[in-house]
Amino acid sequence: MKVEVEYELTRNVNCIANLDIPGGGQVVVQGDYAYVGHMKPPHGTSIIDISDRTAPKVVGHVEPPEWSHTHKVRVAGDLMITNVEQDRRHFLRKGEKIPELRAQGLDDAAVADALGVKISDLADLEAFLERGYDGGGFRVWDISDKTAPRLLSYVKTHGFGVHRFDMDENYAYISTEMEGYVGNILVIYDLADPTNPTEVSRWHLPGQHVAAGETPTGKGYSHRLHHAMRCGDEFWAAFWHAGIRVLDGSDITNPKEVGSYRWPEAIPEPTHTVMPFENLIEGRRYALAIDEEHAHLPGRLHGFLWVMDVTDLSNMEPIAAWDLSERACPWVGQPGVRFGAHQYREKLDSNLAYFTWFAGGLRVLDFSDPSLPVEVAHYMSERSDGSAPQSNDVDVGDDGLIYLLDRNRGLEILEMTL
Questions:
Q1: Domain extents for the chain?
Q2: Would you place residue 47 in the very low, low, confident or very high pLDDT band (cuts 50, 70, 90)?
Q3: According to the 3-state scheme, what is the secondary structure of 308-375?
Q4: Contact (Cβ atoms closer than 8 angstroms) between residue 295 and residue 273
Q5: Which of helix, strand or coil describes residue 276?
């Protein structure tokens, strides 16, 4: 017997504007402007005038460097930082294994099979081997004129380059590969002279600094920094399949670990973001850690949300979790559709928090009782072509409006109706 399911695509949320732009990896709102880092070249970073919230318009754009994407962006005053990371990095790095496979006498079909690619992909991989990649890093911009961002500096790092990061008026907290390390580490740069950012410190997991003789503790790049958020004098760092770390950054030149938590092996998805609520709740300190739905396999857990009691950093522990049922989303199971947790608004200044759940859209949760998170609103975008939303990032303006960015296409401005 076929069971019909009715899907509630939106609850307590209205869409007041939709801007049809290429998909993005991050949206940041400051005043009357939104800044979007796009997922794929040739689209780079867009500056959007939102002074009329019902009619947003792109007023500035910068392109990415060759062979790169610039899908993350941060803004502090009139400074903007955009990442520079190798486009198609995980696919192209497969090419590094080709010489070893060729040395074994394997033909094209066998090489492609060993790499998990098509034979037609080999030419692309070998072209990458020939040209290499040295563009990874970050760029600093003067955005006093939003229509014409002015490049102040381009800091090269290493390898893939820079992924997600944090910044303020004084420092940039960069997640990047660096020579001699396996996987991304934290590198902190002083922005006192934005034309010449200078490294002041770095921090890595034991086992990442192979050039110093350390033995890797993870498989491949599994134990790497996704990004670290500065919260007061602390850094809250998500280390992908190695869990979370809290660093004391009161001495910016020498961050030190003061807390850690590693999920059990039964949790398949990596940690994307972790940070604490700004205020205590009933006298205790809590943090949110969110997985990223990455490569879901049937029968395994989807990426979901953790609530951590972090009152004692030496003894942090999960006290609750929240997940979204597949029955809440009509697009689950369609080819190429990701469904599961990804990210939340990186400012926990009240008991409400805002999450992107890929095909599950926007979810708004109330943490007044941290042991029992309650969803109070949600929004899944309906598209004229019937395709699934892939909600990737979210920010909230000072006026309470929500800016929801899709990974594939579109920025929506939403209002809560509670």
A1: 10-416
A2: very high
A3: EECCCHHHCEEEEEECCCHHHCCCCCCCCCCEEEEEECCCCCCCEEEEEEECCCEEEEECCCCCCCEE
A4: no
A5: strand
Q: Which two tokens stand for residue 183?
A: 């996987």
Q: 125-167, pLDDT tens digit by residue? A: 999 988 999 999 999 999 999 999 999 999 999 999 999 999 9
pTM over 0.90: yes
Q: 177 near 183, Cβ under 8 Å?
A: yes
Distance CA 303, CA 293 (A): 5
Q: What is the DSSP string of 84-99?
A: EEETTHHHHHGGGGHH
- The answer to whether residues 34 and 125 touch, using CB atoms and an 8 Å cutoff, is no
Residues whose CB is less than 8 angstroms from the CB of residue 265 and which lie 6 or more positions away in sequence, other chains included: none
Chain centroid to CA 9: 25
> Cα–Cα distance between 127 and 307 in angstroms, integer?
45
Cβ-in-10-Å burial (0-12, 13-18, 19+) of 344 comes to: buried
CA atoms within 13 A on the CB side of 323: 13
Q: Two tokens at 51? A: 């002074």
Report DSSP letters for 96-140, one per residue.
GGHHHHHHTT--HHHHHHHHTS-GGGHHHHHHHHHH-----EEEE
**Rounded-to-10 torsion of CA 77, 175, 87, 132:** 120
pLDDT value at 3 more than 60 = no
Q: Is the CATH number 2.130.10.10 carried by domain 10-416?
A: yes
